[in-house]
Amino acid sequence: MAHIEEGKSGGRAKNIELNLVPVIDLMSVLITFLLITAVWTQVSMIQIGSSLYGKKSDTQPNPTPPPSADVVLKVDVKEIGYVLTVGKQVISLPMQGGQFDDAGLIAQLQRVKQIYPDKVDAVVSVADAMPYDQLIKVMDNCLISGFSAISVATGGPQ
């Protein structure tokens, strides 16, 4: 704390004593925060600095996709039955006697697997009104046919 001494006579100098402990405490806290935030800004600069400002090399060729990657295999589950899309070909498998044609779906999926033996991915989309166990049945049919990388599309067919 500041201490002021005044002399008895008006001509004497005043003695002022400042307590610098709170100022030193404040500076040590500020320096700590400065060092901590400086480390974090350095880490973020390392992560995005090279990719944002780095030059693209034209010597690296674009990778060519495998032949079966451009063929999309999609199974739509609707209230009227299955709709199988292989590339641009659309195969409709309507319901048989109120039941989904699982045997027909497996046969069509195995036919696709014979045409594209390296293909392992399939997309399944289910209408919102369909029960969850129907999605599981379609995924099981894809696994039986040899498509192990199954993804489920959101939203479902309309």
For the report, how would you describe the main beta sheet? 5 strands, mixed
Which blocks of ≥5 consecutive residues have pLDDT under 50? 44-53
Helix content: 25-40%
Number of helices: 3
CATH class of the largest domain: Alpha Beta
Tell me the strand order in the biggest sheet.
Answer: 5-4-3-6-7
Instruction: State the total count of DSSP E strands.
Output: 7
Helix/sheet category: alpha/beta
CATH topology of the largest domain: Nucleotidyltransferase, domain 5
**How many domains, as an integer?**
2
Describe this structure in words.
The protein has helices at residues 21-53, 102-115, 132-144; strands at residues 3-5, 15-17, 73-78, 81-86, 89-94, 121-126, 149-153. With 158 residues, the chain is an alpha/beta fold. The protein folds into two domains: 3-53; 73-153, Nucleotidyltransferase, domain 5 (2-Layer Sandwich), CATH 3.30.420. It has a five-stranded mixed sheet, with helices on one face. β4 and β5 (89-94) form a beta hairpin. α2 runs parallel beside α3. The radius of gyration is 36 Å and the shape is rod-shaped.
